[in-house]
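Annual report, structural modelling task.

Input specification for the 3,4-dihydroxyphenylalanine complex:
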Amino acid sequence: MPDLLDQPALDAVRDEALAAFAAAPDLSALAALKATTVGDKSPLARARQAVGALPKDQKADAGKRVNAVAQALGRAFDDRRQALEAERDARVLVEEAVDVTVLPSRPVGARHPLTTIQERIVDVFVGMGWELAEGPELEHAWFNFDALNVPAHHPAREEQDTLWVDPPGSGLLLRTQTSPVQVRSLLDRELPVYVVCPGRVFRNEAQDATHSPVFGQLEGLCVDEGITMAHLRGTLDAYAAAMFGEGTTTRLRPNYFPFTEPSAELDLQCFSCRGASAVPGGEPCRVCSSEGWIEVGGCGMVNPAVLRACGVDPERYSGFAFGMGLDRTLMFRHGITDIRDLYEGDVRFTLPFGLEA
Ligand code: DAH
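The model returned the following structure:
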């Protein structure tokens, strides 16, 4: 019988391997021990080969003893592996724990004040039962002009300095106003229609402190039976009170718009001085330049030509419409003097507004 099949020799092989398993500090060290303890080139493998070479009558006894060692090592290896895995899992849980209560180290984004004021205004009208309507920024001239009673070659087309879109003659443009959403709403919806349509509009204008080639508008349209100018006035006053405080009123001054008849300029009573600065001897007011009123947009009774273009019978239905500048509204509400601040994306400007609900 070769020496390596002696029981003391097998015990020594086993004890050495068990000691090495116990000393393996981690899973990769344990895996590396496999070849030298139970693998092809291990003393155990050599012992197995030696068993094969023994005379028949000695094989069974030697084989049993070698197998006992092999089983002991297999069990010990698995036990140590499980113990090391458990240690690793426990360590990972501690080392990679995330404290979700820690405040973020980078500033979170803030919502843009134009977005928040737009939502506030829309909420006022939704509170009165109106619906939100939207239209595309890339619009066709028919919706932006023709259906709104602005004929081809009418100066109003140039007044709004349209940005036309290639190819020339396609009739495509960047909408110059939110009024085309009036047309889309009348074509898409069942009557009566009560909608507010906020959005961006575009004009071929140089940028300065009070002009921007892109700005926000909010359109309102109501078409129903028996609608009069009194409804327009009442609605605008209700809006003014909801946005700027109870008792804030509006003023309409005659004006011309092709899509309304009669048409009016829409002024809001100055929410700061409530008109007191315009009275002789009154304290000067910076918000309204002591005018007492702030111009916010236009309005009027929907021109029957617009109703007809949208397939609505002007004998049965009438309506009013208004359009106001979102940037203007935001600027005087917060004392902003340069419209560029709204578009330059500097978070030092937008952050304080972003904290608004
Ligand atoms: N679309 C007009 C503009 O951009 C504003 C306007 C005036 C809208 C009168 C209306 C309205 O709905 O009735 O200057």
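The longest strand covers residues 214-224.
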